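Good morning C.,

I know you're traveling, so I'll keep this short. The sequence:
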Amino acid sequence: MKPWASLLICVFLPATLAARETVLLKYDDLPKLIQKNSKDVRAAELLMEASAARQGYQARARYPRLDLESGLRGVREIDGSGGRAPFFKLEGSVNLYRGSRDALKDTLQEKETAIRKEETQLVLRNQLSLARALFVKLASIQELKKAWSEAMRIAQEKKKSARMKFKSGVTTNTDLLEFELHESSLKREKRNLDKEEHELSNKLRILVGLADNADISLDRRFPHPPEPKEGKYKLSADAHPAVRRLALQTDQAQTIARSGVSKWAPDVNLFASYEEYLEGDKDVPGSLPRRDFSTGIRVSVPLGDNLTAQNEAFAKGLEASAYELQKQQNARQIEAVYHEHMHDMRVIHELIHSSEEQLQKARKYLKQTSDEYERGVKNGPDVLEASRTLYRTQVENIQLVFDYYLAEVGLTSLTQQ
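The tokens, ready to paste straight into the viewer:
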């Protein structure tokens, strides 16, 4: 390596290493971090705020309307006489009556805002559930790496023992090769664990808004899980945001279906108009520019709009029925998933007890096999199989424990308020 390259490494490598920081991530802080940093949650909040900003149709309908016209207006008699004159017209109007259209719009917009609120809660709940699941999976990888470290330590010890026996002529080179192959297999598994840990850390880091150069340290331990009790996890499917959203959508559609806006409902407006011709009538000598004033009430019946509203009311009646069916189905699915999680936790809890017993036996089996190997009663493959059995049992036990906690994450996502 060239001297200047070595100098650059010496200068910049310590700074690079120092730039990384370790962040203690607390499980109980995940709701606050998701609320603060999740872009999906913030996007849902903005959509809710946008919906709320549209309210006030009825109040805005009372504001006057101003119209200004300007141009040329011509009058031509049958004999061909006449001419054109410039004019301008100013008219103001105030709505007095529009049926219940504006009140209905406000009601529907309020319901739309409530729907957006439930969607925000649903996004928040889903993002939090994802963050908790990533947290648990990351913790499981770290526990698996601890088991791997123990397995590697045992493999290296047994390889050292096999080498000494080989040098002493007590055993053949085959035992040593088998332990070396086992060690290589463990190293490949370590690379897979490191890769999975890196991927999980990146996903969790992005989700909770940590810096890209932050290393995550988890604050929570996952001991032997307690026996699941239904009283701890109380489900109210009707309170779930997904079900509440569908209930609001049903109500919104039913409101339109029951609105009863008559197709003959008129628009009634009070108006005042001022119109002035900027030139007098050229056919009348000495005439002055004409000014017209008018005021009154204008009644119009927007038949097309009202007929459209009638068709929309019928369509919304059908949509309301569809939303109601979806709500019922969604509630049943949530209840089914709830009972599935509870069942899984009970079964896994029993399997963990069995696995812990197997783990104790596997440790005892390895110890006895190792002692007999040292005395020459057992051979290398026997020790190797005993060490593999212990490692597999540890991995199975860790996976069971964290499967339990993942089921608990899913259960919490369904029952949290």
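Safe travels,
E.
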